[in-house]
Write a structure and sequence with these properties.
Length: 551
């Protein structure tokens, strides 16, 4: 016996130490997950010498708890079997564990089993088996419909209600997983869209380079040809080098046209002769006039010198940014007062477009890729672009900063494979998918399940409350007890007491007060539940009545 006590002490100390270690690490969920099985195992070790059947039942309950997430239905059925044995054998130690075990196993079935019909069948079977075991325990006693109802309600609370809560949590977890997967797909699609927009912007720039550099290189070839012809007579000693310059520049022009011509966007228009004014004050003023003619209340503020001497790439970027920004205002805030500000300093220029937030009645379809293209255009020009909502005023704002001299993009700037972080306020909200028919159907289904679960909980709690109320009403008052006389018929006594009460019987039998020989006794709760009354009958007549448990 001392050996078992020592083993129990060691196991208990180890379990407590492990639980404390997990709790200190913040893994409280895992600590709780192991707490009840560990307690059951420790109790089983303690009970092995005197109650081997109880120890086996506790070990079975611990194994069922540990396996409930891997084999939930098997674990529930095993726990139900242990509960049935505990009820029939009236093992107090085992019964103290089996009720929380039943709750946790039932919850695991509802939470883990994907097929709701299979989960409901398993929960119904467990409820039926435990209810039947409770009735078998009361075999030979007078059990009325009220007692059966109490037994069923208790088992519903222990099995069906936790299972229903687990099913609800399982549906919620599946919905959250689907939502996370959907968000991941949308994020991936957004990144791919931005990458496509940047590649299109680079292709557009390549087309512009084809138009601009092709013209310049054509002039170089022309000048080199003239130089080669003149050196034939004027400077024969350098004629060979001049001819090499002419042929090399001609080859470079052909190669540039071949490579950049491929990159020209399909349907791109050839240059219209506006390169000389693109991005200048005249060009921006024309864009503002077009927007005003379209009904946009727009004002222009130009601060600093004109951009006629600026790099053509910078001026094209200015034209593109202003044009796209005003188009966005037309689409997303039609008729909103807008202010366009262009500020030129010695080293850089800043474009600012601010408009009052005024969304249209029907949101226009938008991919949100225009801003991604503008960011790429600004980055390739050596600048940056931000867009979003001003937190102070709530108005929409777009700001682009470009150098007056074209700089190469920094190495830390985003690439095609690593998109620039898009501003959430300016990206298109995918409310259409979130408010679509599937979303509404899912919400209706969730609402129906919640109403059904709430109705079941109300019914169960109402039944339990009625049972408790009925128990109070069935208590026998001292006045009624005095009305019952020796020799009264068993039928009359039952009318006054409500019949045999299993709770009172259990309490009365625990008093170990022997009943008179040759009698059959019934028990009733006394008013206040401080003691019980016993009524013993012989041949249908009351032979003796007692008060048991009165202190």
């Amino acid at each position: 016996m001392a050996g078992w006590a020592k083993l129990a002490e060691v196991v208990t100390a180890g379990a407590v130490t492990t639980w404390q270690h997990l709790a200190r690490q913040g893994r409280l969920l895992l600590a709780w997950w192991l707490f009840l099985p560990a307690t059951a195992i420790v109790t089983a070790v303690i009970n092995v010498p005197g109650q081997p059947a109880t120890a086996i039942g506790l070990l079975a309950a611990a194994v069922a708890l540990l396996c409930r997430f891997t084999w939930p239905i098997t674990s529930l059925l095993a726990g139900t079997g242990v509960a049935a044995v505990a009820l029939i054998l009236q093992s107090t130690t085992l019964l103290a564990f089996i009720w929380p075990v039943s709750v946790m196993l039932a919850y695991a079935v509802g939470r883990q089993v994907p097929d709701p019909r299979l989960a409901v069948a398993a929960l119904a079977l467990a409820t039926g088996v435990q209810s039947a075991a409770s009735l078998v325990e009361l075999a030979g006693l007078t059990v009325d419909l009220q007692d059966v109802g109490v037994i069923v309600v208790i088992n519903v609370l222990l099995v069906v209600l936790p299972g229903a809560i687990g099913m609800r949590q399982g549906e919620r977890a599946l919905a959250m997983d689907a939502l996370h997967e959907r968000n991941a797909l949308l994020e991936r699609a957004n990144l791919l869209g931005e990458s496509q927009a940047r590649m299109q912007e680079r292709a557009r720039i390549a087309g512009e380079m084809h138009d601009l550099l092709g013209h310049r290189l054509s002039l170089i070839v022309l000048y080199a040809g003239a130089l080669e012809m003149r050196t034939r007579t004027a400077a024969p000693e350098i004629n060979e080098q001049a001819d090499l310059l002419r042929t090399t520049s001609r080859t470079a022009l052909d190669e540039l046209r071949t490579v950049l011509g491929i990159l020209r966007l399909d349907g791109a228009e050839p240059p219209d002769g506006t390169e000389s004014v693109a991005g200048t004050r005249e060009d921006v003023t024309n864009l503002v006039a077009e927007a005003q003619n379209a009904g946009l209340p727009l004002t222009l503020s130009w601060r600093g010198d004109d951009l006629t001497d600026a790099d053509i790439g910078i001026r094209r970027a200015v034209n593109r940014i202003v044009r796209e920004a005003l188009t966005n205002v037309h689409k997303h805030a039609p008729g909103a007062p807008t202010r366009l500000t262009v500020t030129i300093d010695t080293e850089k220029l800043t474009i600012s477009v601010r408009n009052v937030a005024r969304p249209p009645a029907v949101p226009p379809p938008s991919s949100g890729l225009g801003l991604a293209g503008l960011r790429e255009r600004a980055r390739l020009a050596g600048g940056d672009l931000t867009a979003g909502t001003d937190p102070l005023t709530g108005n929409h704002a777009l700001t682009a900063t470009l150098p007056l001299r074209h700089n190469s993009p920094g190495t830390t700037s985003p690439t095609i494979d690593q998109p620039a972080p898009a501003d959430a306020q300016m990206l298109p909200s995918r409310t259409g998918a979130e408010n679509g028919p599937h979303h509404h159907a899912s919400r209706r289904k969730t609402k129906t399940a919640f109403i059904a679960l709430a109705g079941a909980a109300v019914a169960v709690c109402g039944g339990l409350g009625f049972s408790v109320y009925d128990y109070f009403q069935s208590a026998v008052s001292p006045h009624t007890y005095r009305q019952i006389k020796i020799g009264d018929t068993q039928h009359r006594v039952r009318e006054l007491t409500g019949g045999d009460n299993m709770t009172a019987r259990t309490a009365g039998q625990a008093e170990q007060s022997a009943a008179p020989a040759g009698t059959s006794c019934e028990y009733a709760l006394a008013e206040g539940f401080g003691h019980v009354f016993r009524f013993c009958f012989t041949h249908g007549k009351l032979a003796q009545k007692d008060e048991l448990g009165r202190s």
